[in-house]
């Protein structure tokens, strides 16, 4: 540690030389105040002990320009009128919501001015939003807004901030039209008071883009993300973390569109910036690794996905407290890969780690807890333990019904998952009941071409297919196909799923030529969109093989089924049930072919 005496004299922070009073005078100990700020000059591993690190610190003075800039920035972010208000803001920023609520409620009782009350209501809204209690957040924001509108001009920046936060809460509640309404109000104020290239505009455009992305309107989302990026590229240095965040959002939109190569391109841009501008264990780097891992997961490259998810996890474990929700997200992502690999017990292990953190870190009705229960329910579904799956899906649903408005899209997802379990249990009428609930919510809350509507129609079609009502199945599969064709890029995997489903109906009806026509359309998309060993390709080959078997073209059937076996043996663990299924299918076709040859020889 280096303490320059000239900086001590230029500092308002007191120090005391205590070497004369120290047990070891040669150490030249200095007693410094708790809030003293030091600059980290160097960090290196100790030569004598690899488990220890030496950190070289030097004292900063009050005249340090970087410290002065940082101090002013923090003061600007903590806008409270008194020290108590600023303390509340700081507690809120570090995520200690219960302590923040206690302090703000006490301040509210003793507040004497409208401006103080407006600020406190606003911060209570931020606290409720952080806890996932979005209705309460809107209620507090509206109380704040009511005071601001009485005491401030209509184009004041505090009004714009409040409108933005109300928009965010409505977005989290799934009320996208209301979210856009408030985001637009915020932009109108900013247009009067800010220059066109102000970074605040970029934030507003980004918020609107995020709403359109969640609505499934990816082209519109990209339009606003691009507006945001254009401003940031003009107003910020090339390695600024906000630019990386913008690239991440664009990458996410491309991922949702099924354009994985484009998604990786933008995620890689974000990662390069973070690697240059942030320390090696910064949580934003972990977020970047998670995003890249998610693309590889969707591409079926599970080992690559695990590699990036593991990088993210290592950073989170070093940089975050053990009960931080981001750690839970990391465990959840790894669990998802193991699910896709068919290693369900390993997946449950990670989902359980995630759940334990969220149960400690969040309020009992937080939507993230519902998502965790949902993931565990999905795992039990995959394992065929349907009663356990329903137990966890029901826990998830109970939280969502308390936390969200009745038409929130997440509720539709919950009903959809429960419907899927009943379908697997053979209770197709119960499955249809839940899938219909899901579809009704999505029709109410989402635009008519949202991909989630196609998913609902596909699931209803599947239930009708399972009960042998093929005309009704085709009706819903056709609806799903029309939505997917309008909403998605021509090579999106969801389109392939629609073609595959229609092919399944024709195969069940015994119309193998028509089935092969649709299976082939599905396969062409998957071969373009996915790597050659993706499990979805194996499913496609399997369906084509079984259709050829139905037609009596056994050599062709075997050639496709052998492709299936090769992919599953390479991409799945050796105990995965799909491998056994593939072997059984090949065996079945070979036996059928032998029987046919035997009967033909008898006839001859």
What level of helicity do the residues show?
A: over 70%
CATH architecture of the domain at 278-404: Alpha Horseshoe
State the CATH superfamily name of the domain at 278-404. Tetratricopeptide repeat domain
Sheet with most strands: strand arrangement: 1-2
Q: Mind telling me the C-alpha Rg?
A: 29 Å
CATH class of the domain at 278-404: Mainly Alpha
Describe the structure.
The protein is mainly alpha-helical and 604 residues long. Among the domains are: 5-77, no CATH class; 79-193, Tetratricopeptide repeat domain (Serine Threonine Protein Phosphatase 5, Tetratricopeptide repeat), CATH 1.25.40.10; 199-275, Alpha Horseshoe (Serine Threonine Protein Phosphatase 5, Tetratricopeptide repeat), CATH 1.25.40.10; 278-404, Tetratricopeptide repeat domain (Serine Threonine Protein Phosphatase 5, Tetratricopeptide repeat, Alpha Horseshoe), CATH 1.25.40. The protein contains 27 helices and four strands. It has helices at residues 5-9, 65-77, 83-93, 97-110, 114-130, 134-151, 157-172, 176-193, 199-214, 218-235, 241-256, 260-277, 283-298, 302-319, 325-340, 344-361, 367-382, 386-403, 409-424, 428-445, 451-466, 470-487, 493-508, 512-529, 535-551, 554-571, 577-603, and strands at 15-17, 30-32, 38-45, 53-59. The termini are far apart. The mean pLDDT is 87.
In short:
This protein has 604 residues and is mostly helical. It is built from 27 helices and 4 strands. Among the domains are: 5-77, no CATH class; 79-193, Alpha Horseshoe (Serine Threonine Protein Phosphatase 5, Tetratricopeptide repeat); 199-275, Serine Threonine Protein Phosphatase 5, Tetratricopeptide repeat (Alpha Horseshoe), CATH 1.25.40.10; 278-404, Tetratricopeptide repeat domain (Serine Threonine Protein Phosphatase 5, Tetratricopeptide repeat), CATH 1.25.40.
């Amino acid at each position: 540690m280096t303490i320059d005496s000239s900086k001590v004299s230029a500092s308002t922070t007191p120090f005391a030389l205590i070497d004369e009073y120290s047990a070891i005078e040669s150490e030249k100990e200095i007693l410094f105040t708790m809030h003293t700020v030091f600059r980290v000059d160097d960090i290196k591993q100790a030569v004598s002990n690899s488990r220890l690190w030496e950190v070289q610190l030097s004292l900063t003075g009050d005249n340090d320009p970087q410290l002065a800039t940082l101090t002013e920035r923090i003061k600007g972010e903590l806008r409270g009128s008194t020290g108590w208000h600023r303390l509340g803001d700081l507690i809120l920023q570090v995520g200690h919501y219960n302590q923040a609520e206690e302090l703000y409620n006490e301040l509210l009782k003793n507040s004497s001015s409208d401006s103080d009350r407006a600020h406190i209501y606003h911060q209570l809204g931020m606290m409720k939003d952080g806890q996932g209690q979005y209705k309460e957040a809107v209620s507090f924001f509206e109380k704040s807004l009511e005071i601001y509108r009485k005491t401030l001009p209509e184009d004041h920046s505090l009004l714009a901030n409040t409108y933005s936060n109300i928009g965010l809460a409505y977005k989290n509640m799934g009320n996208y039209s209301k979210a856009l309404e408030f985001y637009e109000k915020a932009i109108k104020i900013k247009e009067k008071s800010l220059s066109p290239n102000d970074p605040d505009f970029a934030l507003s455009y980004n918020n609107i883009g995020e709403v359109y992305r969640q609505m499934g309107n990816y082209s519109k989302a990209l339009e606003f993300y691009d507006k945001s990026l254009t401003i940031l590229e003009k107003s910020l240095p090339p390695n600024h973390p906000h630019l990386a965040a913008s690239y991440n959002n664009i990458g996410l939109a491309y991922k949702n569109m099924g354009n994985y190569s484009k998604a990786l391109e933008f995620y890689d841009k974000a990662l390069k910036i973070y690697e240059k501008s942030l320390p090696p264990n910064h949580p934003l780097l972990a977020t970047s690794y998670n995003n890249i891992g998610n693309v590889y997961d969707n591409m079926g490259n599970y080992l690559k996905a695990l590699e990036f998810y593991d990088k993210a996890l290592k950073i989170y474990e070093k940089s975050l407290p053990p009960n931080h929700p981001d750690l839970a997200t990391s465990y959840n992502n790894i669990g998802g890969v193991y699910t896709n690999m068919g290693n369900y017990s390993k997946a449950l292990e990670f989902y359980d780690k995630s759940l334990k953190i969220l149960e400690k870190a969040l309020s009992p009705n937080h939507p993230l807890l519902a998502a965790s229960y949902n993931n565990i329910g999905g795992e039990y579904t995959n394992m065929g333990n349907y009663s356990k799956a329903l137990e966890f899906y029901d826990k998830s649903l109970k939280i969502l019904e308390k936390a969200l408005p009745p038409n929130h899209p997440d509720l539709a997802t919950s009903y959809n998952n429960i419907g899927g379990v009943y379908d697997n249990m053979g209770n197709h009428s119960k499955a249809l009941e839940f899938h219909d609930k899901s579809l009704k919510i999505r029709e109410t809350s989402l635009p008519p071409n949202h991909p989630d509507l196609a998913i609902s129609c596909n699931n209803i079609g599947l239930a009708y297919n399972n009960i042998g009502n093929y005309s009704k199945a085709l009706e819903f599969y056709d609806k799903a196909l029309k939505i997917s064709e309008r909403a998605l890029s021509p090579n999106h995997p969801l389109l392939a799923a629609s073609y595959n489903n229609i092919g399944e109906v024709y195969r069940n009806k015994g119309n193998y030529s028509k089935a092969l026509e649709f299976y082939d359309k599905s396969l062409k998309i998957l071969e373009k969109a996915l790597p050659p060993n993706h499990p979805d390709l194996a499913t496609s080959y399997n369906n084509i093989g079984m259709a050829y078997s139905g037609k009596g073209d056994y050599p062709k059937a075997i050639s496709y089924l052998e492709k299936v076996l090769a992919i599953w043996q390479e991409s799945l663990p050796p105990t995965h049930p799909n491998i056994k299924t593939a072997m059984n299918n090949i065996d079945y076709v070979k036996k059928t072919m032998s029987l046919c040859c035997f009967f033909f020889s008898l006839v001859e």
